[in-house]
Amino acid sequence: MGDSPAVRFTTPGRFRMTSSAPLSAAPCGLDAALSARGFEALTPIQAAVLEPETVGRDLRITSQTGSGKTVAVGLAVAEDVAAQADAWKKKKGSKGRRAAQPAVLFIAPTRELAQQLGRELTWLYDSLGARVVVVTGGTSIMGERRELSGSPTVVVGTPGRLRDHLEKDAIALDAMTALVLDEADEMLDMGFEEDLDAILAFATGEHRTHLVSATFTGHALRLANRVQPNPLGVEGTPLGEANTDIEHRCIQLPRKERLSAIVNLLLLDPDAKTLIFVRTRNDTTQLSARLADMGFSVLPLSGEMSQRERNEAFRKFKSSTVRVLVATDVAARGLDVQDITRVIHADLPDNGEVLTHRSGRTGRAGRSGQSIMLVGLREKRKAERMLRDAGVDARFVAPPTPAQIEQAGRDRIARQLTGGEEAPSAGSLSLAVQLLEQAAEAGDGPEGVVARLLDRLDYAGPTEAREVATRPVRESRKGREGPDDGGKKKSRRSSAKDDGPFVSYQVSWGSTAGADPRRLLALVCRRGDVSRDQVGQIKVGSRSSRVDISESAAKTFERAVKRPDTGRDKHVKFRRWKAPS
């Protein structure tokens, strides 16, 4: 082993695989299952957990997102699964036990990750005759009890729900020979240490404990040292080496231009499946609502949503019914979607590890992808440090311009209409001939016919591209970005970006119904798809109000406010201001 060129020793008790291995190296005949799923070889991390040095050891597994860690852990405990599944086949009466007695217990921090683990392990162990049961919060606990009574070989669950089942004697760990803590660092960050300690107290028999974590430092290292008496660190693909098909870009701009930049990025390729990362649950709902108002196919995803809502969002995103998902970091853990084209970091990740997890959602299964980070004007050093820590080489670029977006739309429609492999139908060809003949009789050329058809096609995207300002701004004393105005407070009209001319609109909301300038501004920006600096004077009347919108944004504003609003302000209507005669 030590002389093998596929293994490089790093520190004592730790080694790193630097090459893949043939599928035949998989234990228990699982090479057939891997081949059926499209695997051609084991990845470095999958090969590493099968090396002779790992036998009988507690593994500390680290590898970059997208490098095959889930299957690697499944292979590491395959012998345990196979042994129990085979024993239960030979022993009658194994079914119908009051308490499940799994050979392997997997613990994951989130429902989504637990469900992903369950799906992966189910197909991996199918040929062994092993049953996999997943238990998580947000589902029927009685339904899970029925599943557990069927003697699963593997149980996967979240800490709180596993603890519930253990304390109610629905699960017993007497027969457990392997325990796996997936995303151990994340579990500790989410405050699950008490639940983990309670679960570990039930695991009194002899077993191996494997931990999967982005890093083993601080809290995660203390936990590992406490629960692993015979540890061996195993590294697969380190940071910066996996997902080499990801193109990393950074766009530096004022925070108030963030929405405009996101809009332009989406318009540059409207069909691309995109995952947008934000910091909080409120950010997911607010940003997804703004984008939906503009016509984008988008849903939020956060940990505070019900399990049914989250499952539905996953399903629609995976099937491409929805093209854009706005998510928090925790909610996106376990997002098993292979064809995500683009990741946009609307808010900076907390550190290089989070950046790696986020970016690893694209560029998977041999596909290329993009990771685009929006960087505030005073965040460049932080972003550069984070990229360096993650081993990522990124370019700072300008946001897409309206001209670039328009050209991209033209190129896209040109590719779709010319030189396609799929031949047009006979009916369409007949209609094309008829159109050209009638155009010729009317003295019109084929160019006019094509141009009118293009006018009917919505190939440019659901909304108009925006001019995105990247000019320097002054930081206020509170750290918020604002125009470099020398510290002088401007009026509502003079703060608008274009500083006139303006178009005035009447709003059917006045002071008697609770309207005030602050609330009106928020409503106008949300409903009208405009930024604060495109809003001029606001005059609140008793029953209706008047608001000025920069002329350059008026077309976008009018289009946006015509869309139905399903929120609490759906009764508020907008129309152009008509001066009293």
CATH superfamily of the largest domain: P-loop containing nucleotide triphosphate hydrolases
Mean of residue pLDDT? 82
- The computed structural class is alpha/beta
User: Which architecture name of the largest domain does CATH use?
Assistant: 3-Layer(aba) Sandwich
- Largest sheet properties: 9 strands, mixed
Number of strands: 22
Fraction of residues in H or I helices: 25-40%
Span of the ends, CA to CA: 92 Å
Describe the structure.
- With 581 residues, the chain is α/β, with parallel strands linked by helices.
- The protein folds into 3 domains: 7-235, Rossmann fold (3-Layer(aba) Sandwich), CATH 3.40.50.300; 246-403, 3-Layer(aba) Sandwich (Rossmann fold), CATH 3.40.50; 494-576, Alpha-Beta Plaits, CATH 3.30.70.
- Strand 1 (7-9) and strand 2 form a beta hairpin.
In short:
This protein is of the alpha/beta class and 581 residues long.
Pick out its properties:
581 residues; alpha/beta; Rossmann fold; Alpha-Beta Plaits; 3 domains; nine-stranded mixed beta sheet; 22 strands; globular; disordered N terminus
Please write out the topology.
Elements: E1 7-9, E2 14-17, H1 31-36, H2 44-48, E3 58-62, H3 69-76, H4 78-90, E4 104-107, H5 111-125, E5 132-135, H6 141-148, E6 154-157, H7 159-167, E7 178-181, H8 184-189, H9 193-202, E8 208-212, H10 218-227, E9 231-235, E10 246-252, H11 258-268, E11 274-277, H12 281-293, E12 298-301, H13 307-318, E13 324-327, H14 329-332, E14 342-345, H15 352-359, E15 369-375, H16 380-389, E16 395-396, H17 402-417, H18 426-441, H19 446-456, E17 474-475, E18 481-482, E19 502-507, H20 517-528, E20 535-540, E21 545-550, H21 554-561, E22 574-576
Parallel strand pairs: 2-9, 3-8, 3-9, 4-6, 4-7, 5-6, 7-8, 10-15, 10-16, 11-13, 11-14, 12-13, 14-15
Antiparallel strand pairs: 1-2, 17-18, 19-21, 19-22, 20-21
Helix pairs in contact: 7-9
